[in-house]
Amino acid sequence: FIGSTEDDGVARGVTIANARNFARDLVNAPADDIYPETLAETALELASENVEVEVWGVEKLIEEGMVGCLAVGQGSTRPPRFIHLHYTPSNKDENTQKVVLVGKGITFDAGGLSLKPSNGMQTMRCDMAGSAVVLGVFHALQTLAPNVEVHGLIGAAENMVAGDSFKLGDILEYRNGKTVEIHNTDAEGRLVLADCLCYGSQLGADYMIDFATLTGACIVALGEHYNAVLSNDDDVLNNLQSSAEAVGERTWRLPLPSMYKKKLKGTWSDLKNVGGRAAGTITASLFLSEFVSNTKWAHVDIAGPAFVDSTFEHFHNGGTGVMVESVLHMLTK
After folding, report:
1. Closest Cα partner for 111 from 30, 31, 188?
2. How far apart are CA 318 and CA 305, in angstroms?
3. Which of 20, 78, 190, 272 is catalytic?
């Protein structure tokens, strides 16, 4: 897609490049600079004529039953936040599509009580790359002005180790009534995303897509340069994959078979937050699907391409801003 004139095409390219670089800079920033409060402040700075931004602190999170954000963030001195961005096109009418984009915003992941080893923790500032996708997209929406209503939802928390960290065996009851037993505090991203997906399911969207550095299993399966995509709807998934292909980003579809749901059955609850070593990316996605209702949905595991350890193609080592360009293409094509 290019603009109607050469100048329009150049302007569009600059807007998208700036959005992707904005996302990259967020991922590359150290965790002492980007934590839940400052991530929320960054989102608030994106407010404009067509973009509204709302941020919830701890009291509102408690009131709204955002148990995943609260549990994961309770071991940090930096409290969690829920961020809701809302873009409304100037030419909105009854035919305007409504889309929800959800991003994992774990600004640093020490693993909680299921502590990561030091070498596994070194670059865990990148665990908020899913939120960077959402913020990168919103960085460009005012300028590109697609006729699509877009909601952006981010659960932001630090997963740290402290005397009040959430514990193995804890049971969380979500706003949709599902209960979750904690078997690994390092499987925290899905707990925060579950809050966002429950909330997003209430917004009456045509479809919802979440983005997360969710599983190491995804890197084992697809390597460092492919995003895993899983969905409950072929049209949404095909639209997402064709947009990614058009801009040169790599995706690969994994199945979402209900037969694996039994791996997630809890002993004292409806679900446990891990399904074992086998099919880790799939069981994580099946966990997320338990918190989606009333809408078509796709999950994108960006664990590999979100952050590269060395120079690759035209990317320097560090954050890549992956999927920002794909989503913008999908919203504007």
Report:
1. 188
2. 10
3. 190
SS3 state at 171: strand
Contact 307, 24 (CB under 8 A): no
* pLDDT, tens only, 197-252: 999 999 999 999 999 999 999 999 999 999 999 999 999 999 999 999 999 999 99
* CA dihedral of residues 53, 57, 59, 65 (deg, nearest 10): 70
Three-state secondary-structure class, residue 246: helix
Q: Check if 116 is active-site.
A: yes
Contacts of 311 (CB under 8 A, 6+ apart): 317
3-state SS, residue 247: helix
Distance in Å from the first CA to the final CA of the chain: 6
Give the C-alpha separation, 180 to 271, whole Å.
5
Cα 287 from Cα 271, distance rounded (Å) = 8
CA-to-CA separations, 5 to 8, 12, 208, in angstroms, rounded: 5, 11, 32
Question: Per the confidence metrics, is the pTM higher than 0.90?
Answer: yes
Residue 201 has a CB neighbour count (10 Å cut-off) of: 19
- Bridge partners (DSSP) listed for residue 251: 227
Strand-pairing partners, residue 227, are: 251
- 78 flagged as catalytic: no
Q: How far apart are the C-alpha atoms of 140 and 200, rounded to whole Å?
A: 21
Between β-strands 318-319 and 307-308, what pairing exists: parallel, antiparallel or unpaired?
antiparallel
Q: Helix, strand or coil for residue 228?
A: strand
The active-site residue, picked from 116, 250, 253, 261, is 116
Could you give the CA distance from residue 64 to residue 56 in angstroms, rounded to a whole number? 9
* 3-class secondary-structure state, position 93: coil
Query: Do the Cβ atoms of 39 and 81 come closer than 8 Å?
Result: yes
Question: Mind listing the pLDDT tens digit for each residue in 297-312?
Answer: 999 999 999 998 878 7
Residues 6+ apart with CB under 8 A from 201: 176, 208, 291, 292, 293, 294, 295
Helix (H, G, I), strand (E, B) or coil at 134: helix
